[in-house]
Amino acid sequence: MGDSVDFDVVVVGSCNLDLVSATSHLPSPGETLRAVSYAEHAGGKGLNQAVACARMGARTAFIGCVGNDSAGIMLRDLLSSEGIDTSQLVTVDAPTGRAFITVDASGENTIVIVAGANAHVGDAAITIPSSKVLLAQLEIPLDVVTRVFAQAHNAITVLNPAPAAQLPTELLLLCDFAVPNETESGALGGAQFLLGAGVTTVVTTLGERGAEISNATSITPIAPYKVDAIDTVGAGDAFVGALCAELALGENIEHAARIASIAGALATTVHGAVPSLPTRAAVMSLYAD
Ligand code: RIB
Predict the structure, then answer these.
(1) Shortest-distance Cα residue to atom 6 of ligand 1
(2) Per-residue pLDDT tens for 243-257?
(3) In angstroms, rounded to a whole number, what is the distance separating the alpha carbons of residues 174 and 128?
(4) What are the backbone dihedrals phi and psi of residue 86, each rounded to the nearest 5 degrees, phi first?
(5) Residue 237 known to be catalytic
(6) How far apart are CA 155 and CA 9, in angstroms?
(7) Residue 92's beta-bridge partner residues?
(8) CB 52: neighbour CB atoms within 10 A?
(9) Ligand 1 binding pocket mutation candidate from 17, 41, 47, 48 (most atoms within 8 A of CB)
(10) How many angstroms separate the CA atoms of 23 and 36, rounded?
(11) Global pTM?
(12) Alpha-carbon distance 286 to 164, whole Å?
């Protein structure tokens, strides 16, 4: 990719240790359930999306916080091993973020996150390097996201509003793209509301129904890529990362979303978030122009 800027994509976001239990079904309130299996993976929407960008060939930097513990060392090493710049990954005096994930036999999941070190992103000054795309999610303090988008220089700003939260107009006005899933879009008032509040383009992911691109004048459906899904954790992150990598390449949003749709679908065919994020070669081998 081009080199007139420091990076193709800069991601400001969270990183977690994912503690993943596979169960027959999702537990009901008050129910104690035996797990069928258990695994630990690197995770967090910010880290997952940074890895997704890097595997799609984008020169990527990740800005965030880990704790001074073994999970923090593991996440830092993972990011480096993916070729991601970690010069602004700060180690703070708090536990590394955790995500308690349950995945049932049909691939459905529930996730409880404990912010830990992620709550400290922005405590130390952040200097946003130049990039083609600047990407953030909402597992770090909201005011920090607004602050970094205000420093975007000429980068395309992409907000993955996950988990959904009430968004200030100041932030929405700074978003070139918002990429919610259907549930988040509903919680935020819908694509038309986000457009009216200042976002230029909304890309809503619709799971096995594909995605939808909305702007002031049109709504464009993006067909799904059909797979047999076994685990949807990280699929949205694969979509967002691939979308940003393609935007950084200069592709238009429709082309980028078609490629992202394949990346998201592929991610549902492998267990775990980071393990499931596809490479550019895998995605492009399935892309028919
Ligand atoms: O989007 C999936 C991610 O959400 C998981 O990796 C977990 O850490 C939570 O942040």
Answers:
(1) 43
(2) 999 999 999 999 999
(3) 15
(4) -120, 25
(5) yes
(6) 9
(7) 67
(8) 35
(9) 48
(10) 5
(11) 0.97
(12) 31
pLDDT tens column, 184-215: 999 999 999 999 999 999 999 999 999 999 99
**What atom in ligand 1 is closest to the CA of residue 139?**
10
Structure tokens that stand for 61 in this block: 């930097």
Residue 270 buriedness (CB in 10 A; 0-12 / 13-18 / 19+): middle
Record the tokens describing residue 75, joined without a space: 């996440």
Which burial class, exposed, middle or buried, applies to 23 when counting CB atoms under 10 A from its CB (0-12, 13-18, 19+)?
middle
In the block, tokens 């990598």 appear at: 245
The verdict on the CB of residue 237 being under 6 Å from ligand 1 is yes
Eight-class DSSP state of 85: B
Which residue's CA is minimally distant from atom 10 of ligand 1? 44
Please report which helix (H) or strand (E) contains residue 132, including its range. strand 131-136
180 CA to middle of ligand 1, Å?
Answer: 14
Mutate to test the pocket of ligand 1, among 113, 118, 160, 183 (most ligand atoms within 8 A of CB): 113
Residue in the structure block whose two tokens are 């967090």: 44
